[in-house]
Amino acid sequence: MNFISDNTAGASAPVMAALSAANDGAASAYGTDAWTARIEGLFADLFEHEVAVSLVTTGTAANSLALACLTRPWGAVLTHQESHVADDECGAPEFFSDGAKLVGLPGAGNKIAPEAVTLALSRLREGALHQVQPQALSITQATECGLIYTPAQVRALKEAATPRGLKLHMDGARFANALVRLGCTPAEITWKAGVDVLSFGGTKNGAWAAEAVVFFEPSLAAEMKWRRKRGGHTLSKGRLIGAQFEGLLADGHWLALARHANAMASRLAEAVVANGAARLAWPCEANAVFLILDAAAQDRLKAAGARYLAWSDTALSDGAPLAPGEVIGRFVMSFATREADVEGLIAVLNATPR
Amino acid sequence: MNFISDNTAGASAPVMAALSAANDGAASAYGTDAWTARIEGLFADLFEHEVAVSLVTTGTAANSLALACLTRPWGAVLTHQESHVADDECGAPEFFSDGAKLVGLPGAGNKIAPEAVTLALSRLREGALHQVQPQALSITQATECGLIYTPAQVRALKEAATPRGLKLHMDGARFANALVRLGCTPAEITWKAGVDVLSFGGTKNGAWAAEAVVFFEPSLAAEMKWRRKRGGHTLSKGRLIGAQFEGLLADGHWLALARHANAMASRLAEAVVANGAARLAWPCEANAVFLILDAAAQDRLKAAGARYLAWSDTALSDGAPLAPGEVIGRFVMSFATREADVEGLIAVLNATPR
Amino acid sequence: MNFISDNTAGASAPVMAALSAANDGAASAYGTDAWTARIEGLFADLFEHEVAVSLVTTGTAANSLALACLTRPWGAVLTHQESHVADDECGAPEFFSDGAKLVGLPGAGNKIAPEAVTLALSRLREGALHQVQPQALSITQATECGLIYTPAQVRALKEAATPRGLKLHMDGARFANALVRLGCTPAEITWKAGVDVLSFGGTKNGAWAAEAVVFFEPSLAAEMKWRRKRGGHTLSKGRLIGAQFEGLLADGHWLALARHANAMASRLAEAVVANGAARLAWPCEANAVFLILDAAAQDRLKAAGARYLAWSDTALSDGAPLAPGEVIGRFVMSFATREADVEGLIAVLNATPR
Amino acid sequence: MNFISDNTAGASAPVMAALSAANDGAASAYGTDAWTARIEGLFADLFEHEVAVSLVTTGTAANSLALACLTRPWGAVLTHQESHVADDECGAPEFFSDGAKLVGLPGAGNKIAPEAVTLALSRLREGALHQVQPQALSITQATECGLIYTPAQVRALKEAATPRGLKLHMDGARFANALVRLGCTPAEITWKAGVDVLSFGGTKNGAWAAEAVVFFEPSLAAEMKWRRKRGGHTLSKGRLIGAQFEGLLADGHWLALARHANAMASRLAEAVVANGAARLAWPCEANAVFLILDAAAQDRLKAAGARYLAWSDTALSDGAPLAPGEVIGRFVMSFATREADVEGLIAVLNATPR
How far apart are alpha carbons C245 and C55 in whole angstroms? Predict the structure, then answer.
């Protein structure tokens, strides 16, 4: 019962099959192969928009390269103070941007409100010599706490950022999970809502290592070619990533995978809440469940060998602190999570009714 | 008949099989998986020495991270003026090292002589405030012109570099090809000859995207963990690389692949030289053949649809310039090169005897 | 009546005289001159400790170079969220450190409490691959809000930082103002309290452009020579800075200048508070007075042509917010501030008794 | 008899007087003062062209900031392989440009020929993913070997660089010396000949520390404000540099200083050559004399306590190597060089007629 993260599984069978099928014959190197070329077309269809796409193997690279294209070294990226780019990439965005600053905004459940953007912008005065200049806003969809921005919320953030011309980046490491929950089109939650660049995550969704930086305004990608090469992220055998995406995107496979993960999460959340065995730190909107666990629950989980991550309580709403002895446990579901494991977990958690 | 490079094929069947076999069950993320752990052991056995190993997906990343660990931003890396790290990575070593300088040395066939190292060191005075400080020497095995350093030659280079304490890096994108030609042990051509860090290439050898930075002095790897993460090269599903290497290294598969590629190159070089259809720009010592092609030969190749790369003549020996109309054509053999294609190429080149 | 800052005056007469006196004969270049050499000795005497000293022309350079010597690119500098290094140097510390992160801590009056350090350290786990690693703590003496750390407070901060081995940097742009107020020795408020590196400010104190980075642990300065040169901060005519410091440090001139500035500030604060014309945002402990000005006071100042800076209210204590219409006005006194101007300012502020 | 460099003197009397005169009253900080503002006007008049000017204290900063404004991190600056920016600034241009590459071109006397530019451009293919992209050409006027580019030569270089759109930077650390020798207008040797950015040197000319980056195409300076601040080169008391330039530029003082230095150099060169005591390594065209000294001459100089710099022989013309025992001695004259010292030096050198 490993619920540590959605990156502990390998690749889905169709992804693996697509990779095997691609392993034949010669192909042009460094991303000039036919697989990579087809992916750009697939994304244009998917998003109903002209796009410039760069394929890389990690989310760290996707996010950092995307942000580097949006900011100058004296620029600032507004983002949640506990977002993945700010707090979990060991300064990679600073490295790729040659030292731009990530300015952390508060917000319950790691969601940023338009007011927080407006306040931050008021403190970083336009053109003020001594201050870094805000040039991008980065949001995570779904957030690190498993919450989802609606198209209207994304639009409101873009509007708050527009007076200063900030570009909007969406870290979509779990984009598929957010999308199937929202039930909207990929276009509606991205460029139609003001997103300029999307890190489209394939790895957590079911690939080995496949991430796409999708620019909806292709001119923003002008320097991407050089930045990706200098970062060592231009694979010589580009079809390795291209084929994974082909396997993922064919016949809505990626959405089916995300639906499964989300369903597993909902099942857990509902069963535990109904039973009263634990309460939710944040609503379960995607593929992760954040349970507030008392000492007894922690003990039962430990005894059962269930693995999960202890999570920070910083992003809890002000009015709902942890009680002494409580911790937040994060349980993440992936395309590979088995229903039996979830039911087993529920049984452990619900074992002692309150 | 595609002889453009040894990176146009996919992965060898055993590598693909190892990857498929690895696609089962949950594994710890970010390089803490069992596959990655085993690889470090395999390399220690292979090199008969304690090693610290970091796995990445590209040669650019392997070389750049290795050099960044050896130099400070005000340091200099001595290397051939047309080496891959100096001339073909779009400044990636400068990026990863925060601006260290690559100082280009001359040398026929892209091989560096100890005298060139000594001369360069004399010009960059120790401790001189205004000059970058040499901290590493990087050589390519086999060189970009297909030549090989013997253990004695590597040792002599290390000795030339030792008075100033330079660390020795070997770019082994084609390490396997060099090794099987030398007929020595991996240890003899690396740490026993003075190599401190090796970029061990798996991709051109038969993997999808698998490179290992092998530190023979583990303390030099102290910062690698952070540098790799910041560079976006710490895959969440680390077994993707680990499994490729497992497939490659099992039962000497990697050496068999390299022997095949070298044999194909030797066959071409010998047949063409025997016929007098073209002369060699440099001796054929690994898996690439550099033919000096006159206009007629170029025409025949074009008519036959043979694909190869036009190569710089800068590294020709001083006494052997190109005649008017001649170009250097690079023909590279890989694990996947078919004998029939080589014979076909020979037939085209030898069609009109001289 | 210009109270905008303490950097609007030129140099004090003795500094100017020292510079004139130095303008004779040939001197070795790039900081190897006799003036520069003498300064290191002066600082060793002043601080009763072995020191390594680097002279530069700006506080931005002094702070950024100092912090770059204390951190790696994946390191973090804990500092107040509105400190000068975090908020007023346009990302210079990030530039010089090749992308290290400045982590902002809260604190009224821009003073950091040990508890804030402890909390920040608990959130940035030691050795955690995904997080930047805290390596330095930077405090400002006096703070940007004019407050002063006592030796005991500095010591407590160092102790909070010690479990993780952080080095302690003190931004002493207004070190002299703090020192004369504290009435302790330079040693007591620096290395005896745990400070590893001090940016000793000369410019605001009465020089043209003279700052010294003073390392109390000389080994920390090992890379300074290269960093300063690469940053373009190694003047060829080093006596320009050396002579200014000689003028400043001779006969306690620097302390006299600071005493004057502090006295002017105290006079203003006391007169206005006694009259009730305005209240203080923070106690007046050095050479700046932060007045909470109502609309009427603002009008009177405007009419009188008094110049001051509007200041952020973020660092006010939680229990003392601004009333509607109120702003914080910063009035800074320098060595050159004339008593008549201060009395004039007081007259304007106290014109309408409340 | 110190002929080590032209940076061993202090400031000329008029520069010192201008600085003293500026030391009165309050001035706006960070380069918004009246002195700085006037300098931009003075340069516009001097160059008969609209200019954007940034004042800094060192040539390293001026050159590095200028080049950083002209290149991207994956860009290349073509320059002489022994130019000051390539060989004497400890990698500062790489630091300020976030890792751009300086590509060294050959050329006797450190002068670059158009053919060398054309050849270098042919090797760095436009748009080639794996190679850095040439974006600037940097020449030194006068060169480090004391040679001067004529307007026609500068124009020819710009024309060689134009097909790839390179910007032309002139390192004018000794611009005044070149100008008075050429006898042309400042405009003729800069923007009229194709120069886009000039590092206008004041320090060697007679200032303490005053350099100006002069952009003839002001749009190229768009990022200068941020780059200078982040580099710590925005002095708070900007009039320190402004006043020096005011002293230097008033009444052609700068040209008179340069004429003196050049005359001292000519006197030395002519007297020694006429006597046959030494031959010139390169013609004496500015304020430095490069003498090829045999062992006897070296002994006489040593005995007399004459100080000079031993110089590299790399930039000698191919046909004129040093004989065994010979070295190149560099003797540099400055505004402060006394005629008596030059005559004394001549006497030493000419003591033993050949």
Answer: 9
